[in-house]
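Quick sanity check, GntR family transcriptional regulator:
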Amino acid sequence: MFQLDLKSRKSIYEQIVDNIKELIITGILKPEDKIPSVRELSKTLTVNPNTIQKAYRELEYQGFLYTVSGLGTFVASPSDLPVDEKKISEAREHLKGCIRELFYLGCTLERIRSIMNELLEERSNRNDKGK
């Protein structure tokens, strides 16, 4: 499913949340897909089941997953996914900083646009492969 970076500053719990969100956003995990049980993912990642449960609870809280008692945990429909305006604003500010850094490195506006287009194309290709 994904790997964890044990040297990362991010906690294991945060990495699990981020990785599952990435799989959902890129379309690798589709709406109504059943995700591994806490026990299964715990064995696969060699992580404490409580950590997996905490990540699943957070993803449910954020609207990415839902649980049906006795059946398992599933990916929520896209229309159910939340739009976090605060995070979008934070990402926008981060992007502004990256663009400013590229200007400081001597990149022209045309080169920056080219870089952005390449990155968007890579993302699009990754999404197409997930379908």
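Posting the structure with no commentary besides this: The longest strand covers residues 65-68.
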